[in-house]
Amino acid sequence: xxxxxxxxxxxxxxxxxxxxxxxxxxxxxxxxxxxxxxxxxxxxxxxxxxxxxxxxxxxxxxxxxxxxxxxxxxxxxxxxxxxxxxxxxxxxxxxxxxxxxxxxxxxxxxxxxxxxxxxxxxxxxxxxxxxxxxxxxxxxxxxxxxxxxxxxxxxxxxxxxxxxxxxxxxxxxxxxxxxxxxxxxxxxxxxxxxxxxxxxxxxxxxxxxxxxxxxxxxxxxxxxxxxxxxxxxxxxxxxxxxxxxxxxxxxxxxxxxxxxxxxxxxxxxxxxxxxxxxxxxxxxxxxxxxxxxxxxxxxxxxxxxxxxxxxxxxxxxxxxxxxxxxxxxxxxxxxxxxxxxxxxxxxxxxxxxxxxxxxxxxxxxxxxxxxxxxxxxxxxxxxxxxxxxxxxxxxxxxxxxxxxxxxxxxxxxxxxxxxxxxxxxxxxxxxxxxxxxxxxxxxxxxxxxxxxxxxxxxxxxxxxxxxxxxxxxxxxxxxxxxxxxxxxxxxxxxxxxxxxxxxxxxxxxxxxxxxxxxxxxxxxxxxxxxxxxxxxxxxxxxxxxxxxxxxxxxxxxxxxxxxxxxxxxxxxxxxxxxxxxxxxxxxxxxxxxxxxxxxxxxxxxxxxxxxxxxxxxxxxxxxxxxxxxxxxxxxxxxxxxxxxxxxxxxxxxxxxxxxxxxxxxxxxxxxxxxxxxxxxxxxxxxxxxxxxxxxxxxxxxxxxxxxxxxxxxxxxxxxxxxxxxxxxxxxxxxxxxxxxxxxxxxxxxxxxxxxxxxxxxxxxxxxxxxxxxxxxxxxxxxxxxxxxxxxxx
Length: 793
Fold this sequence. Notes:
This protein is of the alpha/beta class. Helix content is 33%, strand content 25%. The chain contains 22 helices and 29 strands. The strands form seven sheets. Strands 8, 11, 14, 19 and 20 form a five-stranded parallel sheet that branches. A five-stranded mixed sheet has the order 22-29-28-24-26, with no helix packed on it. Strands 4-3-6-7 form a four-stranded antiparallel sheet, with helices on both faces. Strand 9 (208-212) and strand 10 (220-222) form a beta hairpin. Helix 7 runs parallel beside helix 9 (283-300), helix 7 packs parallel to helix 15 and helix 14 runs parallel beside helix 15. The N and C termini lie far apart (101 Å).
């Protein structure tokens, strides 16, 4: 009687209040000591005690049938300060549970002493311990024939493992610890079996950056080497493949994971360093990646494969925060288009791309609209989001036509969430498996109508969660109440006419999920990066070297895996944009210092540098004068010339200028794409125009003086010649006066005579004199240099 009262848990509060009052009145009285030893006080102790913890580490078989022997093993640990004596571990079969809610209730209170678990099985199937010391764990294993459990009709039974014993404070046999779980009992084939679809997700976090090497192979760069750890034997992804290959599941794969593993397997991948440098990846990890891909190819052969859009974009974030940003939806379309190609290339299977999967299956009208915008017409939702409102007494089939040719495939929330949490301990994993099987059997027992049920677990199960999922599926597929079905078949199944098809409103979307979404600023940055990529790509001769890695990086920026990792997401987006800026800056104008122009016209060279490994073109270089009245470029205010440059070279583009006046003029050089978009930063420099210099004036003045002197000499020579002629002709002739200064015989004539000029003076039409300073930019051909020409800066 005492044990039964203790275990069933009469409320402790009245007893405690009574004891406190009695203690206040009878302090020190012998009666108090006697009262404290009464069995009636036992419930007070037991109700709040967790003296001993019980862990059920294995239960086999998980779903027993007639003739089986049930084996239960685990540990009991004394958490109290007193030793437990005369202890034993026993098995208890509780009542049959008739609803799914009852299963939930038992699971919530699985280790509480207040709840009843029924009577103990025959004492011959118990394990005894003389003493459990404080803080010490003891292992136990119990085996009992199933027919000794007195199970009745088919159904789910509460099943408990208890530790009973005594302590010095409570010297009678009573239950000190319990662990409740479930025993599915369906020994014969069910008349109607549930068609169960289990999604097996192969999804990881983002691993690849936008950077690739300059060589022909474009060696990829990874954020870190964490992917190799997941692929290695025992790693999370290795477990998913090893366990999933023998299960009837639908593989749901993010193509980004395949692309990342394939890049690692190809060899020579590099790892990003903290200081901006990179280091080579491990050859051993390359071999691991190859082995994993080979195993996956075998595992998916003959199975249904569903490809998510590349990078597994966060549909809810896009719907709530991205649609107002121009171009955001186009990224989802690109991610969907490339998905099938990636999966087929790597796995050699043709996947289905008809399904969209929002985070946790939570939907609202905007999410449904975005999810189907890229071509998917089936959205994987979950029943805790798209809840039943018609009061059906059973769980309806998964497919729900929601209008517009779209089908919501509603996964069962209880089954889908069964493997969440820390399952690294054997006890937790065993409880998860038994609860999953209990819910599945109870669901099947709800009605004779056959239904299609979908299980959509968490996107990235841990290795221990994957092991628990596989254990549950093995038991389910070997059981008697379920049969496997792929996702496409489930989506095409006949909808239940009584099931709800109303998509919940935006206000119903869980706030816990909203807080994890990518903000609007993230999509604005993505749009900015895409705009820069569009401008950069037009100048490239081989666009795929840049467009492909950056396009996939932009898809990764929208990944669902960034949920709860806002800082990491910000860093990734910033890194992608910064690398694109750095690449685009490899094609640029070289800074130019002040240039001096002497004379009316000259040629100004401007150098364009291409440090990329590929040629660039489709560019024009425009040179503009800010004062065309003083200095014109090509006869106009500005002039532009096409630019084509080989990889790793520079090109000097030459512009003819004409000066109209002296002074300093600011000139601006700017690259443009052929469609008129500015490319890169402009280069501004000053041109000092000295059209008519003092030296030139001096030379011109000297030339004029020489002309005057030459003319005077010619005049005097003609004068003398005329005088001589007159003298020969006789008296009376004009010019006969011998005293005339022009007389050739006069002494003054000799003073004016000079020898014949032998140096040729420059004429007024010559633009330069030998004494002119050499101009900085002498007149030369205005033709551009070749595309492979190297020039000095």
